[in-house]
Design goal:
Elements lengths: L1 E5 L4 H12 L3 E6 L11 E4 L5 H8 L4 E4 L10 H22 L3 E5 L11 E4 L12 H15 L7 E7 L2 E2 L6 H10 L4 E3 L5 E2 L2 E2 H14 L9 E5 L5 E2 H11 L7 E3 L1 H17 L10 H8 L2 E3 L2 H7 L7 H16 L1
Parallel strand pairs: 1-2, 1-4, 2-3, 4-5, 5-7, 6-15, 7-12, 8-11, 9-14
Antiparallel strand pairs: 10-13
Length: 331
């Protein structure tokens, strides 16, 4: 069986490519830039998903597509997010239709249904909000809805997975960003410090994709559905951060901001940055303030029921693996 992994050079994409190869599949990894250091046996395709014909060509001969590519982040040009996350996904869908691809596994995000307030044990009945605080969740929501709407069209079966805060060895965003901000003294606790969040260790995120792919068959409950994915161990966000910093012999977070203050600062900075055309990310935005101050953890019973998902690596084991890897790199 031949499969395509978009975003094959990214954190999740690389791990998916390795696991699929280990499972004996023929794998092509697609990326905007040239991808290097992939496991032996993986074919690489350099292609920007905004290039419709090239994207369609990349889908030729594939039995399944794992669409993990996206522009993430909380700041940037709206047109860039839309072009990659929405138009790029539409091009993938068209490629699947034209190449008679049988399965499309879409990597979505829980942020597509975040209402900027506490979401505690929320399940997949949570509606899409009317408004979003930044373009990433907005464009991912548009893409997710179109992927799910494409299920059972022209022989294509689709599913959307929503892993929350993917982390682990090789993570280029979450943990390095926390540690970097702490070193620079730019990390502040936002809100009351009691909010709980879900996280998803990289091996668990990969496992969910593989299981969804294997269960994505005509008539199966997984078809045309969205699923929350996590480690199934919600953590107190600020205790988790303090624990992480402590493992690196760094002091816990001492500065505090109320959610109201952080939200006001975020709004002011967004206004200033847009007014003056500043391209760099503001140190605070309303979306970041909301994510840092509110609870957002999810009920994954549906994924357990429909395709047998369960985490294969615990939070503690994941943290030990991460720290071992980061220390070996440092030395």
């Amino acid at each position: 069986m031949k499969v395509l992994v978009t975003g094959g050079g990214g954190f999740l994409g690389r791990a998916l490519v390795k696991k699929l190869l280990d499972n004996g599949l023929e794998v092509s990894a697609l990326g905007r830039r040239k991808i290097s250091n992939l496991p032996p046996g993986a074919e690489t395709i350099q292609c920007d998903l905004k290039d419709k014909q090239s994207t369609i060509n990349a889908c030729e001969g594939m039995d399944a597509v794992f669409h993990a590519a996206a522009i993430p982040g909380v700041w940037g040009e709206s047109k860039d997010f839309y072009a990659s996350n929405v138009e790029g996904t539409r091009n993938i869908l068209e490629g699947c239709f034209q190449a008679a691809v049988k399965k499309l596994i879409f990597t979505s995000s829980p942020s597509v249904v975040c209402h900027n307030k506490d979401m505690e044990n929320a399940d997949e009945t949570a509606p899409y909000p009317d408004n979003y605080l930044c373009d990433y969740p907005l464009t991912k929501a548009i893409a997710e809805r179109e992927v799910l709407a494409a299920n059972n069209k022209k022989g294509l079966l689709t599913v959307a997975l929503r892993p929350h805060l993917i982390w682990g060895p090789g993570d280029p965003h979450l943990v390095p960003r926390i540690v970097d901000r702490a070193k620079k003294g730019r990390l502040a606790r936002v809100g009351k410090g009691i909010n709980k969040v879900d996280m998803t260790y990289i091996d668990n995120a990969v496992e969910s994709h593989i299981l969804a792919f294997e269960h994505l068959k005509e008539g199966a409950p997984v078809t045309g559905q969205a699923y929350f994915i996590s480690d199934d161990e919600p953590v107190n966000l600020w205790d988790w951060i303090d624990n992480l910093l402590g493992r690196f012999d760094m002091p816990p977070v001492k500065r505090n901001l109320s959610f109201r203050t952080a939200n006001a600062i975020g709004f002011a900075l967004e206004t200033i940055y847009r007014t003056f055309g500043i391209k760099s990310e503001p140190p605070m935005t309303r979306f970041v303030a909301s994510q840092l101050a509110t609870s957002h953890y999810f009920n994954i019973s549906k994924a357990k029921r429909d395709f047998g998902y369960k985490p294969i690596v615990s939070q503690e084991e994941g943290l030990n693996r991460l720290l071992e890897t980061m220390r070996s790199i440092a030395h």
